[in-house]
Amino acid sequence: MKPSVENPNTPRRGHLVKFHTPYHDEDPKQLYLLLEVFESNDIYKTRADILALGTGFSFPPISKVNLEDLEIVNWNTSELIGHHATALTKTGSNVSGKIVHILEEENAKAPLQTLNIHVMLEDESGELTAGELLLNSFKHQTGKIYF
């Protein structure tokens, strides 16, 4: 039976996750983005689509796994500063550049474990633009924007 009260430690769409007990031949530090949760009345049969991060592939594989095998990874958004990214602005346009600042006041509205992060980007011409971080490979692979 599905629990009536949602556990705050249960991974949800947009969370950065890892396997709590990886197999001996798997990298225990491998991180995944939880793309979608497929609910079931039996908590042990609830499944999730995850996408491996940092694989170097243009189109990293999406895997379907048991949700109970995953745990949420807490991380610091300041680790993103200096990385190149694409952000969606409030006007709906995509801007690419280097992350120079994390907009903490905007991020306080979302759980810290999600990748729904507001950043300040500096483009090649030096112009600063605020926006919501996008991970383009997910958009190209699935046709959906998750952030």
Describe the protein in words:
The chain has 147 residues and is mainly beta. It has 2 domains: 16-72, no CATH class; 77-142, SH3 type barrels (Roll). Helix content is 7%, strand content 35%. It has 2 helices and 9 strands. The strands form 2 sheets. It has a 5-stranded antiparallel beta sheet with strand order 4-3-2-1-5, with no helix packed on it. A 4-stranded antiparallel beta barrel has the order 6-7-8-9. The longest helix has 7 residues, at 136-142. It is elongated and about 50 Å long. 18% of the residues are buried. The model is unreliable at 110-114 and 136-147 (pLDDT under 50).
What form results from the Cα inertia axes? elongated
Distance between the termini: 30 Å
What is the CATH architecture descriptor of the largest domain?
Roll
Give the biggest sheet. 5 strands, antiparallel
Strand-pairing-aware structural class: mainly beta
Overall pLDDT level: 76
Low-confidence segments, ≥5 residues, pLDDT <50? 110-114, 136-147
Helical residues, percent: under 10%
Q: What is the helix/strand order? A: EEEEEEEHEEH
Reported by name, the CATH topology of the largest domain is SH3 type barrels
Secondary structure tally: strands: 9
**Overall radius of gyration:** 16 Å
Count, helices: 2
Strand order across the biggest sheet? 4-3-2-1-5
Residues in β-strands, percent: 25-35%
